[in-house]
Amino acid sequence: MKNFLPLLTIALLVTFTACEKNDNDTSALCNNGILDGKETEIDCGGDCTDCPPAATFSCTLGVTPFVSTNATGQILGPSIRINAVDNDGRPMNFMFLPNAVNQPLPLTSAAFSYLGEPYSKGLNDTGSVTITGIDTLRRIISGNFAFSCTRITNNTQNAAKNGAFANVRYK
Questions:
Q1: Burial (0-12, 13-18, 19+ Cβ within 10 Å), 111
Q2: What is residue 168's three-state secondary structure?
Q3: What average pLDDT does the segment 92-110 reach?
Q4: Fewer CB within 10 Å: C terminus or N terminus of the chain?
Q5: CA neighbours within 13 Å on the CB side: how many for 134?
């Protein structure tokens, strides 16, 4: 019995030492799908790997470039809506049902303002979005788009062409 007590003490010491929390080990925090620790976004920034770059959004609207560094995404039911405001304060948004990557998806709605006039997707308007990348854990999406919309005040059509969005965060 005298020999058993030192062995028990050593076994308990090893057990509790092995269970000590290591504050320098961030691998568990950086891969748990939760914004925690020093992360600036889910599982990135702080002590984790760098976060993806900020969102970009651009297209040709009619014959005018539309460029935004202020693009966001929003989950609305099963759809994702991309919202952007260009550097001149003009808004644009479109919505689609996310599906497979690299396959054209039909737009369910679209709207923009061009030269001060509002446009929205009408029955005869066409358009699609192709998702080129989606990170469902961090909720970041990238893709390409093109669509036409009808001017609300006089039924003329205009189009967003050569559209691209990258690293848009959606909630």
A1: middle
A2: strand
A3: 90
A4: N
A5: 16
Is the domain of 47 the same as that of 65?
no
| Neighbouring residues of 58: CB distance < 8 A, sequence distance ≥ 6 | 65, 66, 67, 68, 163, 164, 165
CA–CA separation, 20 and 8 (whole Å) = 19
For residue 4, name the pLDDT band (cuts at 50, 70, 90).
Answer: very low
Same domain? For 106 and 147 the reply is yes
The residue segments making up the domain with residue 151 are 56-169
Q: Report the C-alpha gap between 75 and 145 in whole angstroms.
A: 18
The count of structural domains within the chain is 2
Residue 33 and residue 111 in one domain: no
What is the biggest distance separating any 2 CA atoms in the chain, rounded to whole angstroms?
A: 98
Cα(77)–Cα(171) distance, rounded to whole angstroms? 11
Tokens of 168: 């848009």
Q: What is the pTM of this model?
A: 0.77
Please say which residue of 51, 70, 86 terminates a domain: 51
